[in-house]
Amino acid sequence: MEINNQNTNAGEGCNCAMCQKWGWCPAGKGHKIFGIIVLILVLIFVGRMLFGECGYNRSDIQKDTITVSGKGEVVVKPDMATISFSTTAEDIDVSKASDVVNQNMADIVSSLKADGVDEKDIKTTNYSIYPRYDYLRTQLDYYGGKQVLAAYVVTQSIELKIRDLSKAGKIISDLGALKVTDMSGLSFTVDNDDAIKLQARDLAVQDAKAQAKNLAKSLGVRLVKITAFSESRDYPVYYGLESSKAVGMGGAPDAAVIPTGQNTITSNISITYEIK
Hints:
Blueprint: H1 2-10, H2 17-22, H3 31-51, E1 65-76, E2 80-91, H4 94-114, E3 122-136, E4 146-162, H5 168-176, E5 181-189, H6 194-219, E6 223-234, E7 237-238, E8 243-247, E9 255-259, E10 262-275
Antiparallel strand pairs: 1-10, 2-4, 2-5, 3-4, 6-10, 7-10, 8-9
């Protein structure tokens, strides 16, 4: 009987099914507190569903945007020429072939220094040694033959920077008389072009901003903020404005015309704006 009285007292004032059936429940007179706790837990769960990791983040909501492109160009006169060349020798004795290449290179470097080229602008890009074979076949070996070592080929390749363009013609002419082979890749560039690249980018940004304002006005919207930016550059070389003269390789008496031209540094950008 005492147990029944305790249960009844515990569930006093409570009309839940558990109290009606058993005369007792965990909450007892604390049903209001229990209900408040449940409500708080529900609110926390709903909040996380709407704003937290259990659902989507409000920042993920798709926003209206427009994307515009801008282009900036800066035309500059080149102040440096770059050219590549090689010197090659071959001999059945690899050490002799190497000695010839080394002597050729010593003569080349000496000539370049005499023309005012700094040693730091004479860069080796490749040094190779490989065997060259001849394929021999006699009447007795009509259906066959054999490879015979003919020589070792030694090649040293150089990338040369010419900073005084007024001497470019003479330097190229001198190289042609020094057993240089495979001379190629003559190009005219700007040595320190970082400031020019920034200038081209600034022009591209101004162009894009102007387009964005005009487009927003036409659409009847307002630019809010930049949400994305990208840039690509292109540095084509245009020839034909100025020229230097050089005697052609092989010491030909007639001068060859080598245009130095001008360079156009281009920046292409893309800007995405949030709009309202």
